[in-house]
Write a structure and sequence with these properties.
five-stranded antiparallel β-sheet, 9 helices, about 15% strand
Length: about 325
């Protein structure tokens, strides 16, 4: 009986090497090409993310820089009454810019990271041969369901982002948001916190804010209505009010608060009790109420010195009399 053994030696090694060479040749794309392309995609996305974060950091730093001409100094508070209420802590402006800049920077950075991550995942899946069509369709359906279920939450975040980007209001501003009227203590992407005059803290969803009145932007106006008696000389009243307003602005502690000389707008109304004269002056934001209180005190003293009387309520009494009755009889009834 004869046995046949497989061939060994140099011929076998050559055929084995040829088979491995053919296998590597057939799978070169999968072993080298695809990993290299995936690595290149990851490197490019990391570089793009680094460049985007650097740009966002520059934007945040620019927002943090104080506007040209703004005095970054804090004034000492005066003791006593009157003008002390006019001097507030101006560090609120810095705090407002920092919160706004950091929030916008954080949002932009998160958006860039999420977008680049999604693009990278899609490109990597395409390289490994996974069809993106069904995945995108499924993601669209899931996103649509989430959008319908959390549309109020999405509206809150979008409204909060627009409030910050447009700088509608910020920390330290005095605002009117409808029922909530007071000072803004915090502005977030979803909620705004407002402290009212009585100390209550309001939590308002940004998506529910339909209109805002901001008393803290650019400039404000102090309006004072002064009531005088009907027999008062209006020319004298005008002169006293104008002199009082100019004297207030000439004082050093009010020079930076009042933006113009107080102006008498004239007679505001006439009624049975007296004449109402309006005095107005443009002020820096958030100082109009303190200026009004100080003007009211000074105007009262000036009118007293000028001998101008303020009106007092008058009441008309009708007496019914009968023939032959005296005044005493009518009053005794």
């Amino acid at each position: 009986m004869s046995h046949t053994f497989p061939p060994t030696g140099q011929g076998t090694d050559t055929r084995l090497a040829a088979s491995w060479s053919d296998w590597f040749g057939d799978h070169t794309e999968a072993l080298i090409g695809i990993p290299l392309r995936i690595a290149l995609i990851v490197v490019v996305l990391l570089v793009l993310r680094a460049v985007a974060k650097r740009a966002i950091t520059r934007v945040v730093q620019r927002v943090l820089e104080p506007p040209a001409g703004e005095a970054e100094r804090s004034r000492p508070r005066r003791s006593g009454r009157g003008a002390a209420v006019l001097h507030r802590d101006r560090s609120r402006a810095r705090q407002r810019r920092e919160q706004r800049a950091r929030t916008i920077g954080s949002v932009l950075s998160s958006v860039v990271t999420i977008v680049l991550f999604m693009v990278g995942v899609a490109m990597v899946l395409d390289q490994v041969g996974i069809a993106l069509g069904p995945l995108l369709a499924s993601a669209g359906v899931v996103g649509l369901a989430i959008g319908f279920g959390a549309q109020s939450l999405v509206a809150d975040y979008l409204s909060g982002l627009l409030i910050m980007v447009e700088d509608q209001y910020g920390v330290g501003d005095s605002v009117d948001l409808g029922e909530a009227i007071g000072e803004v203590e915090h502005v977030g992407l979803r909620l705004t916190h407002v402290r009212d005059l009585n100390g209550g803290l309001w939590h308002i969803r940004n998506g529910e804010i339909l209109r805002v009145r901001n008393d803290s932007q650019e400039w404000a106006r102090a309006v004072l209505d002064v009531a005088v008696a009907h027999d008062a000389n209006l020319d004298t009243v005008y002169r006293v009010l104008e002199e009082t307003g100019r004297a207030l602005r000439d004082e050093p502690e009010f020079a930076d608060v009042l933006l113009e000389d107080p102006a008498v707008w004239g007679v505001q109304s006439l009624d049975a009790e007296g004449v109402l004269v309006r005095l107005a002056v443009k002020t820096v934001p958030l100082q109009q109420w303190g200026v009004t209180r100080e003007l009211r005190r000074r105007v009262k003293d000036a009118l007293d010195d000028a001998g101008i009387e303020t009106p007092f309520p008058r009441r008309t009494v009708w007496l019914r009399t009968e023939p032959g009755d005296t005044e005493a009889d009518a009053l005794s009834r």
